[in-house]
Every structure is written in C-alpha cells, then in structure tokens.
Amino acid sequence: AKAEGRGTHRASTAEPDAKVNRARDVKFALNNALNLDEFYLDYQPIIRLASGEISAVEALVRWKHPQYGILAPDLFIPEAEHSGAIIPIGRYVIAAACAFAATIPAAIAVAINVSAVQLHDASLLETIATCLATHGIAPARLEFELTETAMLDITPQTVAALEGIKALGCGLSLDDFGAGYSSIATLFYFQFDRLKIDRSLIRDAIGESRRRIILRNITRMARDIGIIVTGEGAETEQHRTALIELGFDDAQGNLFSPPLPAAELQRQLREVAWG
Ligand code: C2E
Ligand code: CA
Ligand code: CA
Ligand code: CA
C-alpha cells in the first residue's frame, strides 16, 4: 500500500508537468505554423434574402498542415485559445481579412471571428486600427463576430474592448445565437449590429410551428431595435423559404455558397461586376 501511495504521489506530480509540456508544445506548434504561413482564410458569403446580393463575407481560418492536410478551425482554435496562441493567430486573421476587404467591392462587409481571449489582449484595438489604416478600409466594413460563450466572462476589460470596436466604427455580431448559453442580457447590455441564429435552430424550426413562432418574434424584436438577423446553415430551398417567411434579413449556408478560397470569391465577384 505504501509503494502504491508513492506511485500515486509521483503520478500526481508528473501529471501537471505533462500538461504544462503539452500546452507548451501546442503553443510552439501553432506559433511555428504561423511563422511558416500555414494558416489561411476562406470566405463564406452572407446573402441578403430580399435581393440575393452578398451583404458580407465571413473569414474562416484553416490550417494547411504539412502532414494532416487542411485542418478545420474546430480542431485547433480551442487549443489556440487555451495556449494563448490565438492572440498572434487572431492578429494574422485581422490583417489578412483587411487585405482581402481591399480587393472586393466596398458594399461588402468582412466578418471576422474573435475569441474571448482576444478581448483581453490590450493591443486588440490597435491591431484593428493599424490594419484598417494599412489597407485603407472604412471601419464600417468590418464586423467582429463574438459567440455567446465569449460574452460569458464579461469583465471591465472585455466591455472596454467591445466599446472600443464600436468606437472605431466597426460592427459587432452576436454569433451562434441559441446554440448554447443564450442570455438575453447579452443583447440587453451590448449594442450588436447583427444577430446570427445558430444553424441548429434553423434546422429544428422547419415544420415546427411553436419554434417558428419563437424565431419570428426574435426577428421582429431585432428589427425593432435595428439589428440585422442572419440565419446560419441554410442548406435547402425549404430553409430559404422558411427564413424569408420568418423575417430574416440575411442567410449563410451551403445553399448559397460554401466557404471559398479568396481567389475564387474574387473571381465570382468580378464576373458579377462584368454581368
Ligand atoms: P462559425 O463562426 O459558426 O462559422 C460557420 C461554420 O459553419 C463554418 O465552419 C462553416 O464552414 C460552417 N457552415 C457554413 N455553412 C454551412 C452549412 O450550410 N451547413 C453546415 N453544416 N455548416 C456550414 P468552420 O469553417 O469549420 O468554422 C468553425 C468555427 O470555427 C466557426 O464557427 C468559428 O466559431 C470558428 N472560427 C473560424 N475561423 C475563426 C477565426 O479566425 N478565429 C476564431 N476565433 N474562430 C474561428
Ligand atoms: Ca462566426
Ligand atoms: Ca456561427
Ligand atoms: Ca459555430
């Protein structure tokens, strides 16, 4: 029993070490990937339902991993947030999205996802302002998307970051609304410009009158307070029809377009411009 006790003791001291080592390895790998230019952005159009025109494009980060191929953000963003590597990765995303914004029509906004961790970065506002200036982008062309989970740890610093983003003249979107810890307080206390209804709610509202009533009232409330409402994950014509009936302004999803490489989207926009 004594030997077992010692073993247990050893294990419990070794475990935090292993965790620290792993976190350090992950942080190193992510920063290394950034230095090697292995991250890039795809862009997914957000469509105005009434006209079919592109209202914005959302920048979605990918990791072109030398061994594993193209990795989706869900596979490395949580690790990046945990290790702090999201700060430099997030800076890259903001810079690349601004560079892209300069190449497309000014009527199209560019939406950028930001993690809660980034709201604690004292240099976030400066990063945004510098990128806007470098590429000559009007601030109103950028929309920063925050999930409700990001809104959970509201501190004076995160409040200042959100107010700072608004003060710069950029937009704020509440992402994945209804997916997790929805709180009316988030809408109550912060002036979002866009509300993005999570795709699970869109999917589950089809043919369910009670749920459709709830969504119809959300879009009505949003209209009354001047917020654009986007339905995420629109995959079928049925979704499109339902979103229009329920009073959504915009929609995003594979029905309209999957996320596209920058060059492909630029090509499509040029074709539209030429007729
Ligand atoms: P999100 O912000 O909710 O982005 C939309 C996700 O839904 C994207 O996944 C997109 O590819 C996917 N999607 C779009 N249309 C459809 C559809 O019709 N059906 C289905 N099933 N899915 C659709 P993706 O690119 O894998 O991104 C996953 C999440 O990773 C994003 O969710 C966002 O929370 C996060 N993310 C992406 N880029 C960044 C970034 O630069 N920074 C941070 N912090 N997070 C990011
Ligand atoms: Ca988003
Ligand atoms: Ca979303
Ligand atoms: Ca999501």
Automatic annotation (TrEMBL):
Upper lineage:
Bacteria, Pseudomonadati, Pseudomonadota, Alphaproteobacteria, Acetobacterales
> Domain of life of the organism in this record?
Bacteria
Q: Which residues form a coiled coil?
A: none
Q: Which residues form the EAL domain?
A: 23-273
Entry protein name: EAL domain-containing protein
Name the source organism.
Acidiphilium acidophilum (Thiobacillus acidophilus)
